[in-house]
């Protein structure tokens, strides 16, 4: 089994390196076949998108926060949390929402203004010759595929799981828990620094568009408002649904990832790792599409740990007995032990002669 898993990992990593190279090859062919000069800046928004640039700037600065708050209010007004947002749940969700707004800006600023000029001096804006579309797909693929692996490894490596389990401890889905993460998981988001590096190299404009689009997709996938249900309900929309659910994360596919069980044919916490693009799960065989929603969310072993233990582990440990965040607990099992059930003989089927 270990050999098979190792072979699959090597295969998936090989495929990933190939996918990473696709935008680079496309950009190279664009200049080679088009005879366009690389000695001048090409990072300008296409004319048909110029009217959107101010909107994207405002959305990036404050619009996303307003969107999350408004959508969260709608969810609460609709009673979509079933009175589960109480006690420690409220505290960890609020802290996880506010803390990154305070923690990440200075970290990213230090990385961009101090670390990068030291590590790669004289390379600022060195990729400004890349056309907007090239920068867009380069960042979209590099950012989201990297996050796919970051996310996947935090599910498959027991030690890393404890830095991500906070996100899965919520017994509900919605805007309240969309930012719910351990601070270490957030600070070490690998794709954040990758995107910051590409922005430093001159791809800030396409990075802005990718970030805004990705934010809406991931927030929509976490929302308790199942906006994708009409695509499954009406037959005329089924072709769109087929493409949509394989291309991006939807509430149905991402809610399945947050289910508290995988034994019902709907929940799939061992897969559906995609954030903006679900196609990574399709390519690597980690996806499950059912167009159904789980009956319950979270983890069955959840002890409603203190907010500070969930957000600041391992600096602060949980006082809850049996918690994987408690003192002395070495790991948290990521595999569920199958329940033994008494087998009932199936009726013998009569052979039908043709």
From TrEMBL:
It holds the Pfam family FA_hydroxylase. Keywords: Lipid metabolism, Membrane, Oxidoreductase, Transmembrane, Transmembrane helix. InterPro entries: Fatty_acid_hydroxylase, Sterol_desaturase/TMEM195. The chain crosses the membrane at residues 12-31, 59-81, 102-120, 132-150, 183-201. It is found in: Endomembrane system. Its main location: membrane. The keyword Transmembrane applies. Residues 137-286 form the Fatty acid hydroxylase domain. It is a multi-pass membrane protein. This is Fatty acid hydroxylase domain-containing protein.
């Amino acid at each position: 089994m270990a050999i098979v898993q190792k072979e699959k990992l090597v295969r998936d990593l090989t495929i990933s390196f190939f996918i990473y190279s696709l935008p680079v090859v496309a950009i190279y062919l664009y200049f080679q076949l088009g005879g366009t000069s690389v000695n001048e800046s090409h990072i300008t928004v296409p004319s048909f998108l110029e009217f959107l640039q101010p909107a994207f700037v405002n959305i990036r600065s404050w619009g996303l926060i307003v969107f999350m708050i408004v959508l969260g209010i709608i969810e609460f007004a609709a009673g979509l949390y079933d009175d589960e947002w109480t006690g420690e749940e409220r505290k960890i969700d609020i802290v996880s929402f506010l803390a990154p707004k305070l923690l990440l800006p200075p970290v990213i600023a230090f990385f961009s203004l101090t670390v990068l000029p030291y590590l790669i001096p004289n390379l600022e804006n060195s990729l400004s010759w890349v056309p907007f579309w090239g920068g867009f797909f380069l960042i979209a693929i590099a950012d989201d595929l990297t996050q796919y692996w970051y996310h996947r490894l935090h599910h498959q490596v027991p030690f890393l799981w404890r830095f991500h389990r906070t996100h899965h401890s919520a017994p509900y889905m919605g805007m309240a828990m969309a930012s719910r993460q351990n601070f270490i998981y957030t600070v070490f988001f690998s794709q954040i620094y990758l995107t910051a590096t590409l922005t430093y190299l001159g791809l800030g404009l396409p990075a802005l568009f990718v970030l805004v689009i990705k934010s809406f997709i991931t927030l929509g996938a976490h929302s308790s408002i199942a906006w994708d249900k009409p695509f499954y309900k009406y037959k005329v929309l089924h072709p769109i649904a087929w493409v949509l659910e394989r291309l991006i994360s939807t509430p149905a596919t991402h809610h399945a990832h947050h289910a508290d069980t995988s034994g019902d044919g709907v929940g799939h916490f061992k897969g559906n790792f995609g954030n903006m693009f679900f196609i990574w799960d399709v390519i690597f065989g980690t996806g499950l599409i059912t167009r159904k929603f789980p009956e319950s969310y979270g983890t069955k072993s959840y002890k409603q740990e203190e907010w500070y233990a969930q957000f600041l582990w391992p600096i602060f440990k949980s006082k809850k007995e049996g918690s994987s965040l408690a003192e002395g607990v070495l790991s948290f099992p990521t595999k569920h032990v199958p329940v033994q059930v008494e087998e009932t003989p199936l009726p013998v089927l009569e052979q039908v002669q043709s």
